[in-house]
UniProtKB/TrEMBL annotation:
<dbReference type="InterPro" id="IPR039143">
    <property type="entry name" value="GNPNAT1-like"/>
</dbReference>
<dbReference type="InterPro" id="IPR016181">
    <property type="entry name" value="Acyl_CoA_acyltransferase"/>
</dbReference>
<feature type="domain" description="N-acetyltransferase">
    <location>
        <begin position="6"/>
        <end position="144"/>
    </location>
</feature>
<dbReference type="InterPro" id="IPR000182">
    <property type="entry name" value="GNAT_dom"/>
</dbReference>
<dbReference type="GO" id="GO:0004343">
    <property type="term" value="F:glucosamine 6-phosphate N-acetyltransferase activity"/>
</dbReference>
<protein>
    <recommendedName>
        <fullName>N-acetyltransferase domain-containing protein</fullName>
    </recommendedName>
</protein>
<dbReference type="Pfam" id="PF13673">
    <property type="entry name" value="Acetyltransf_10"/>
</dbReference>
């Protein structure tokens, strides 16, 4: 049974588990090139993981974005999708944004995942665009 959401930094041993899950989901499953999956923002980001035993089964990261925060790399292990882990991660992002006084939360959603983010109060903004060969839409959740 998956546990609580743990905030970590990239110097945590759990970060390796987060990267492993991201590789499995984005590179293997979705064919995102490995060399762009980890970018220069990763080192300083706030990362969040959910463990099942000692395995990372869900993760996301949050980076500063002007007076807003940007959510990214949201991934849930395939066999655990649809069980509420993604929702719990995004609710944590919303809590963090409120606690930090961020104006908004923004993200680039895969079009296929947009209905998931809409349920959490995000709305589409602007045109569709391509990222790593996958159609994306910018989504925003205003905090104030
Ligand atoms: N389309 C429509 N609705 C979706 C959805 C989708 N792709 N994914 C989840 N939902 C809905 C669920 O049905 C649920 O609705 P409910 O509250 O009315 O029951 C709600 O969103 C929350 O679902 P949850 O179980 O918390 O979602 P999840 O744990 O499966 O996480 C993702 C959602 C997108 C993070 C997960 O599917 C995933 O890791 N996908 C692969 C990686 C990816 O594409 N990440 C997003 C990059 S932008």
């Amino acid at each position: 049974m998956a546990g609580e959401i743990l905030p970590i930094r990239s110097d945590s041993p759990l970060y390796v588990g987060a990267l492993r899950l991201r590789y499995e989901v984005f590179v293997v499953e979705q064919a995102v090139p490995a060399d762009i999956e980890v970018d220069e923002l990763d080192e300083g980001a706030q990362h969040f993981v959910v463990l099942d035993g000692d395995e990372v089964v869900a993760t996301m990261r949050i980076v500063p974005y002007g007076d807003a925060l940007k959510v990214g790399r949201v991934a849930v292990r395939k066999d655990l999708r649809g069980t509420g882990l993604g929702r719990r991660l995004l609710e944590e992002a919303i809590r963090v944004a409120a606690a930090q006084g961020a104006r908004a939360l923004v993200l680039n959603a895969q079009v296929a995942a947009a209905p998931f983010y809409r349920k959490l109060g995000f709305v589409e903004e602007g045109p569709l665009f391509d990222e790593a060969g996958i159609p994306h839409t910018r989504m925003v959740r205003r905090m104030i």
